[in-house]
Amino acid sequence: MKSKSSNVNDTNHLNKEENKNQPKREISSPSTLDSRFNQTLRNVQGLLKGRSIPGKVLLTRRADPIDDLSTPERSPTFGRSFSESDTGTSDHVQNPMEVEDPSTGKSNNGNVNKLKSSTSNIENTSKEAHKSPIGTRATDSARLITFNIIPFFTRSCREITRVSLEWCTTVHAPYCMEASFDRREGVLRRKRLEYFDCVAQFYDIPDTERSDDEINMLRQIAVDCPRTVPDVTFFQQVQVQKSLERILYTWAIRHPASGYVQGINDLVTPFLVVFLSEYLEGSVDDWSIANITPEKISDIEADCYWCLSKLLDGMQDHYTFAQPGIQRLVFKLKELVRRIDEPVSKHIEEQGLEFLQFAFRWFNCLLIREIPFHLVTRLWDTYLAEGDALPDFLVYIFASFLLTWSDKLQKLDFQEMVMFLQHLPTNAWTHQELEMVLSRAYMWHSMFNNCPSHLAS
């Protein structure tokens, strides 16, 4: 009897152990699951209601970012702001494709189709950017998205140039890129005040408080300012030259490793023209700086200073002692021309012409003196879009520029080549010729940049 009872107890004990090891199964009806899901969804919606992700990416799909860019609200202190503050809720949006007129408070359906097209355009661009193949440049996707942020119906050469300058240089070094939109005005105001303090500290002082080197540098800047873009009468105005002088001297004092180098004066002019175009209409030759208030001139001057600083931060060794950065790029240019067009390279070498004799000025002034000034802003769109990769891409642009006259160069001797390259026939150039130069440069960059031995003998 004991053995039987013990066997039964052992069996019951084993069954209990197996039941303990098995996971418990919760039997829930479909209605219970639906109610829990709906409750969770309501909780999340209540938590996130009216909130937006920083950077103008809203939780609900709406066209407000496009509206902000296409019809920016002008700030009383800064006329180049792009959008309003990010703060606020999105509860007032009933129809995401309706544009509200801030002056009347009424919705305006006239731009609905345009906004739809622009929104789909940006979404498609973003998808294409994410699908870009391995090996493309890091800046390609960013440039494509940045360009498509501008609605197609507002794209003009000046608008694209202005947005390119302000997005790529962020108007004042990398500060505003890090700052969100709601802090941009504060950062902008702070950087302008910083520039004004530097001018008061370094420029607006008597010569008795300057060293001999600083006096000589200021005199050299004063000599070079009237020589800046001599073909454009606007830059011959005294007030414009004074602004250039303050920008260049302040930059040189704050960058003692290089100081002022002839040619830097040309690099300020594209920024100055683009920022002034907000207030002056028509051709640059017809502009008068007297039509702008001193306060606006000071703000534009500060913006140009920070843009110049950002541009030169990536090519500081171009202007230090002996300018090693330029010499290195000239050597790369010579090697690239040999790989692309060996007959031209061999002819230049046989005639005894060194690339440094004509290409040094190209790298020093970034081609500003080689092409008509009305094409400079288009060229600088490409410069600024390249970002930190600009110095390497300059080699391809200048190779394309030189080989525009490949056939003619092979027929010239040394003296004729020197004269020809110093006075290139670009006076009649239009955007079409410049676009061809940039297109070839981009194509060659794709072919040769990551293949140093390609076509090399």
Automatic annotation (TrEMBL):
<feature type="region of interest" description="Disordered">
    <location>
        <begin position="64"/>
        <end position="135"/>
    </location>
</feature>
<dbReference type="Pfam" id="PF00566">
    <property type="entry name" value="RabGAP-TBC"/>
</dbReference>
<feature type="domain" description="Rab-GAP TBC">
    <location>
        <begin position="204"/>
        <end position="387"/>
    </location>
</feature>
<dbReference type="InterPro" id="IPR000195">
    <property type="entry name" value="Rab-GAP-TBC_dom"/>
</dbReference>
<dbReference type="GO" id="GO:0005096">
    <property type="term" value="F:GTPase activator activity"/>
</dbReference>
<feature type="compositionally biased region" description="Polar residues">
    <location>
        <begin position="28"/>
        <end position="38"/>
    </location>
</feature>
<feature type="compositionally biased region" description="Basic and acidic residues">
    <location>
        <begin position="13"/>
        <end position="27"/>
    </location>
</feature>
<feature type="compositionally biased region" description="Polar residues">
    <location>
        <begin position="1"/>
        <end position="12"/>
    </location>
</feature>
<feature type="compositionally biased region" description="Polar residues">
    <location>
        <begin position="72"/>
        <end position="93"/>
    </location>
</feature>
<feature type="region of interest" description="Disordered">
    <location>
        <begin position="1"/>
        <end position="38"/>
    </location>
</feature>
<protein>
    <recommendedName>
        <fullName>Rab-GAP TBC domain-containing protein</fullName>
    </recommendedName>
</protein>
<feature type="compositionally biased region" description="Polar residues">
    <location>
        <begin position="104"/>
        <end position="124"/>
    </location>
</feature>
<dbReference type="InterPro" id="IPR035969">
    <property type="entry name" value="Rab-GAP_TBC_sf"/>
</dbReference>
